[in-house]
Amino acid sequence: MAFGRAHTDGKVAALTESVAVRAVLIGLAMVFIAAFLVLPLVAVFSEAFAKGFGAYVDAIKDPIALAAVKLTFIAAGISVPLNLIFGVAASWAIAKFEFRGKSVLITLIDLPFSVSPVIAGLIYVLLFGAQGLLGPWLQSMDVQIIFAVPGIVLATMFVTFPFVARELIPLMQEQGTEEEEAARSLGADGWQTFRRVTLPNIKWGLLYGVLLCNARAMGEFGAVSVVSGHIRGVTNTMPLHVEILYSEYNMVAAFAVASLLASLAVVTLLAKGGLEWRYGHELAASRG
Question: For the packed helices 199-219 and 251-287, what is the interaxial angle rounded to 10 degrees?
């Protein structure tokens, strides 16, 4: 039985699977998505509204829950822009220039992917904690990092800083340096070259990286859990607040706050799909 056919009209031959094979593969994919994505989302929202809309609203309006939501957005609002700046600068340097230590920089960018978030949080405790390397000096300066907002921001930045850079590095390397060199030869300075040449070429990859970075920042648990101290209303982000509510068997409140995180995840997926569609549409249009 033939599984496909080749088209040799001067283009690369394309292989098309049979209808039965495609149906099986699509069916397996849909079953997997339903079991591991759709059903958990349905369960979260079902439990969140188990005692009615009023109980759901009360759980969200709780001052401690609102403080957790606020802290989550603060951590993401600080870490994502800083990682955006770092990601663009590191990607530009790696893709456009040759310099000593380039391979070391690439390795450091990938470090958060290979280090457990819990270990990353512990490292910050050993550095900035009261008994840590810099702890006594920080205490003498009346500066608190661990069990405070700065520690949460640092932990969030650590686990999220590869996302923007890792989206941009291969994109910039593929584009090369010809257009930037042409712009410089025509008299453009560095900022003009970046704004008018580099940025338009990387805008979709940049937005995609920021989107992933923001999603990870809002959902981070391990590193933030170590450095937060779990102080209610002060250092608990939404994931930490959900854990505490669940451990206290306050299911409606736990799933209500979890539904906010689930909603953010759904919005992220929709935005991701929209960016991919826009990029594909623009790429097809440019190829005419």
Answer: 170
The angle formed by the CA atoms of residues 139, 83 and 277, to the nearest 5 degrees, is 155
**177-213: pLDDT as tens digits:** 788 888 888 888 778 888 888 888 888 889 889 999 9
Share of the chain above pLDDT 70, in %: 92
By residue count, the chain amounts to 288
Question: Is-contact 220 159, C-beta < 8 A?
Answer: yes
The Cα–Cα gap between 152 and 154 comes to 5
DSSP 130: T
- H or E segment and range at residue 75: helix 63-96
**pTM: predicted TM-score of the whole model, two decimal places:** 0.83
Structure tokens at 104: 């070391």
Q: Using CA atoms, how far apart are residues 266 and 254, in angstroms rounded to an integer?
A: 18
